[in-house]
Amino acid sequence: MNTRYFTITDPARESAAVEQAADILRRGGLLAIPTETVYGLGADGLNADAVRHIFEAKGRPQDNPLILHIPDASWLARYCKDVPETAYRLAGRFWPGPLTMILPKADCVPLVTTGGLETVGMRCPDHAVTRAIIAAAGVPVAAPSANTSGRPSCTTAAHVREDMDGRIDGVVDGGPCRVGVESTIIDLTCTPPRLLRPGGLPLEELRAVLGEVAVDKAVTQQMAAGERPRAPGMKYRHYAPKAPVTVVTGSPRASARRLLAALGERDGVICFDEFAPLFAGHIVHRLGASGDKLAQSQHVFDALRTFDATDVPAIWAQCPDSAGLGLAVGNRLKKAAGFHTEEADGAFVLGITGGTGAGKTTLLRALEKRGALVLDCDAVYHEMLRTDAPLRADLTAAFGDVFAPDGGLDRQKLGNIVFGDAGALVQLDAIIFRHLPRALARRMEESGARLIALDAIKLVESGLGALCDVTVAVTAPEEVRVRRIMARDGISEDYASARVRAQRSEEAFRADCDAVFENNYPTPAQAAFAAEEFLDTIIKKSKEE
Asked: What are the tens digits of pLDDT across the range 470-517?
């Protein structure tokens, strides 16, 4: 079959192309159409033979219902019986838009379209091109997502071409989808109304109009093999790339720590934007910022689909919370994983940083008194130099044979290479920052500790700050730091001053961190008391948030 491609941006000006696309539907053909959610694979929903071709082209199970797309709410009475006032109220509020309503079907709607059910899903898409095509065709368009069944849904015409070229009659390119996840499906045939599939319209907005809305168990868990789905996307494993997916729930930082600890060397990652630098060396696809649910909905299918062009053996994905569009994004990720999920631990991680002599030890000792696991990042790095094969291999590849015959690092040899070459020093830091977060995440997870502190001068530069629930800069006036270093290391004032001035400024540490502990107390006892009060405030505030 030769698939015909249409690019339509303005249906009023490109009426001939609209009419040609509509003619494919009237003749019983298959036409991929754009919507605001995902691309749909459309056919005349009243033509049983045409609808069967949808199932054949997708490889879709016959009991998986289809949705009828119409250009406006006035068409509801043509294809539904006993349309309730609630349906028109929802249509007036949310149509055109990403909302599908389950209603009793009219006799003219064939059972093949509804998966054998006496109900039908109705939707008015928020895409002018597709509404114009449906109106020109004069028939409701049954249209599941335009992907091969089981693959991630299509959010561009290029995705449709990957799956359907040569298998359908036409593809209408109406640009990338604005929402990126399928429509929300609400069942209006029961009381209270029931959410069958979360989608582009958040549950909170439905409840603002309807009051109580129940949530079907299929939203959060796999349906049993013998159960009949009442709407698309409820029963079968959807949206799945070739590699197995594991979804990690929990706070963004906690799930990032879990991914770092669990990742295999060649595994792929789907993560929020701010954590992507932590996974250098892996194939990473970004969902969007952890707080940007719309971006996540726009990117989730592209992230899943793109992995099929790679050879990753497994995929690990961060999952947003269930507020707003997060419920739909999380549902799609969990469907892709066959509901194989892991809950990240709820440890509270403090990142402690500051210049030499600032007094970090006071805060770290206060944390140890509370039973915290304190990880000295510099000490962990030096341990890795002896035991971590990937780190040692990267250092050797970058700088040559810098390890002594006994296996230890030849510090003088490496120092001669990097300390006289700014570019080499940047390269060394990049290697360390690539491997250290993984090692720390594994130590944190293996410990089982609920309170953890990371002690790192380069907390922010290394990316470790992204793993911390709160980052703290410990500061003190320059003259205080100089006196402390002189007493601790037995060096001259000039040398101590030079060490302090060679480090980042106090202002830079303050700017990079969430909180500041000013350690300028006259006695150790006063400093220790202040540290305890500071930690009480930080931990209490975090729990409240």
From this structure: 999 999 999 999 999 999 999 999 999 999 998 988 899 999 999 999
Phi-psi region of 469 (alpha: psi -120 to 50; beta: other; left: phi over 0): alpha
Selection from 269, 272, 279 nearest residue 326 by Cα: 272
C-alpha torsion angle, residues 297, 303, 304, 310 (rounded to 10): 180
What's the rounded Cα separation, in Å, for the pair 526 and 56? Answer: 76
Distances, alpha carbon 19 to alpha carbons 16, 70, 342, in Å: 5, 16, 50
193 pLDDT above the threshold of 70 = yes
Give the CA distances from residue 73 to residues 90, 130, 230, 311, 315, in Å, rounded to whole numbers and listed in that order.
10, 15, 22, 46, 42
The structure tokens listed for 422 are: 């700014």
**Looking up tokens 């006036």, which residue turns up?**
477
| DSSP-derived pairing of the beta strands 141-142 and 67-69 | antiparallel
Cis peptide bond upstream of 522, omega within 30: no
pTM of this structure: 0.87
For residues 100 and 183, the answer to whether their CB atoms sit within 8 Å is yes
Q: Which residue has the tokens 């949206």?
A: 239
Query: Looking at this protein, which amino acid is placed at residue 342?
Result: E
Q: pLDDT digit string (tens) for 326-353?
A: 999 999 999 999 999 999 988 999 999 9
Give tens-digit pLDDT for 380-426: 999 999 999 999 999 999 999 999 988 889 989 998 998 888 899 99
Hey, which residues does 123 pair with through a beta bridge?
69, 100
Whole-Å CA distances, 284 to 127, 281, 338: 31, 9, 21
SS3 510: helix
pLDDT-derived band at 233 (thresholds 50, 70, 90) equals low
Residues contacting residue 464 through CB under 8 Å, at least 6 positions apart: 351, 377, 436, 437, 440, 454, 456
Give the three-state DSSP class for 501: helix
Q: What is the pLDDT of residue 289?
A: 97
Measured distance CA(370)–CA(447) in Å, rounded: 15
131-148 exposure pattern, b = at least 16 Cβ within 10 A, e = fewer: bbbbbbbebbbbbbbbbb
The chain-wide mean pLDDT, for the chain, equals 93
Q: For residue 184, what are the CA distances in angstroms to 28, 329, 416?
A: 28, 12, 62
